[in-house]
Amino acid sequence: MLFKDQVDFVMQHIKKNKLRVFMTVLAATMGCAFLIVLASIGFGLQASMEEEILSSESVTKIEVMGGEAQFSEEEVAEIEAVENVQTVLKTTTIDAEVKSFFEDRDTISGLRLTNFTDYASIAKPLAEGTYPKNENEIVVGYHFGQTLLNEADRKLIEEKEKAAKTEGTYYNGEEEGYKSSLIGKEIEIAIRSYDDPNKLSDRMTYTIVGVMPKPAYEWAIENRIYMMDEQRAVLENSFKQVIDENPADYQLFFERYDIYAKSLEYVKPILEDLRGKGYGVYSVTEQLEDLNVFFLVLKAGLVFVGTIAVLIASIGIFNTMTMAVTERTREIGVLKAIGASPKLIQRLFLMESTFIGVIGTVIAIAISYLVSFASNLLLPIVLEAATGEENFGNIQFSAIPWQLVVIAATISIGVAMISGLRPARKATKIEVMQALRQEL
């Protein structure tokens, strides 16, 4: 019996029982679609968390445990000599607030010192401008202009904050501040005393040449000032003007060292190498490894629950195939009488159950992608309307990678074939004479 004839035999029964086959395909579709959509939640949440982690931290960054660990020049050289280490970045934070003045505006911010040559090699591109080349040049945070306020701005912010509080929301002052470009503008800064906020050091004039990139987190306000390391002595002298206690007893500067690999693939070998040398180091990629283990278990659980729905749908396939064997007993007898082997007869009915599984799976995949797209589009809108928050747009509620499609299709089609196996074997055991005597 040619393959074409086998297909015709299967299609003949499907056309004869369209409604029954349609309902069976629908059940298979619902089971497979439920499996894919349910498991896609795990994939979607994992993708969102990984994106958040990787966007908030440089994936090639290796942190030194303790934060303010002091490295000698020899230790820095030793670390930089480790294979595939790009640089050891030293940043110095000043333990004091800085007040900046520009035109009729002012703001309070933090201050950092760094080597901009090293910083430029690992940082994201600036939002605007360039890195400093002279000691009187500085780079400011992305929101520095937004926080430069005058009295009119402060009154407007206060009014809007009260109105937002009445409505149960929050206003962050994004509409106020200095809106023009700060590149090339001169500002004056002074160190402010913690004990007396009105006590300031002498003002120092600097030129803004760059603006840092936008922070990864929407809620983060970045208005720090970044200076060259060479300004350390100048700041120390200014700080002595506002501190009441003995400057020698006060630690003004806190140094931090971060190690950067040339690419993500080198992070783990560098971690192992540095730990072998006795350094306490950590990378965000280790957090991702723990996260992957957690989501692997979660996704396996969701696939297991979804598989139960597919197994329930298989009951319908089993019933349909059992009825098909009963209804076609005479045809089976005729096939056997003309020499059809048991393997051929079994194959015919397995083809039919497989056809139901394949059609149901294809439709389920299409439906699953539509549901996934709709949930990612509509759920943030619904949740924002229900809670009043506006940070749901960054969450991916559903994701369907090709691996999930392959797993779901294998389970769905495999279950369909197994469901048709017993009826197919039953068909091979029908006696020829008994089948031919059956009334039409």
Automatic annotation (TrEMBL):
<feature type="transmembrane region" description="Helical">
    <location>
        <begin position="293"/>
        <end position="318"/>
    </location>
</feature>
<keyword id="KW-0812">Transmembrane</keyword>
<dbReference type="InterPro" id="IPR050250">
    <property type="entry name" value="Macrolide_Exporter_MacB"/>
</dbReference>
<dbReference type="Pfam" id="PF02687">
    <property type="entry name" value="FtsX"/>
</dbReference>
<feature type="domain" description="ABC3 transporter permease C-terminal">
    <location>
        <begin position="304"/>
        <end position="431"/>
    </location>
</feature>
<keyword id="KW-1003">Cell membrane</keyword>
<feature type="transmembrane region" description="Helical">
    <location>
        <begin position="355"/>
        <end position="379"/>
    </location>
</feature>
<feature type="transmembrane region" description="Helical">
    <location>
        <begin position="399"/>
        <end position="421"/>
    </location>
</feature>
<protein>
    <submittedName>
        <fullName>ABC transporter permease</fullName>
    </submittedName>
</protein>
<dbReference type="Pfam" id="PF12704">
    <property type="entry name" value="MacB_PCD"/>
</dbReference>
<keyword id="KW-0472">Membrane</keyword>
<feature type="domain" description="MacB-like periplasmic core">
    <location>
        <begin position="22"/>
        <end position="216"/>
    </location>
</feature>
<dbReference type="InterPro" id="IPR025857">
    <property type="entry name" value="MacB_PCD"/>
</dbReference>
<keyword id="KW-1133">Transmembrane helix</keyword>
<dbReference type="InterPro" id="IPR003838">
    <property type="entry name" value="ABC3_permease_C"/>
</dbReference>
<comment type="similarity">
    <text>Belongs to the ABC-4 integral membrane protein family.</text>
</comment>
<feature type="transmembrane region" description="Helical">
    <location>
        <begin position="21"/>
        <end position="45"/>
    </location>
</feature>
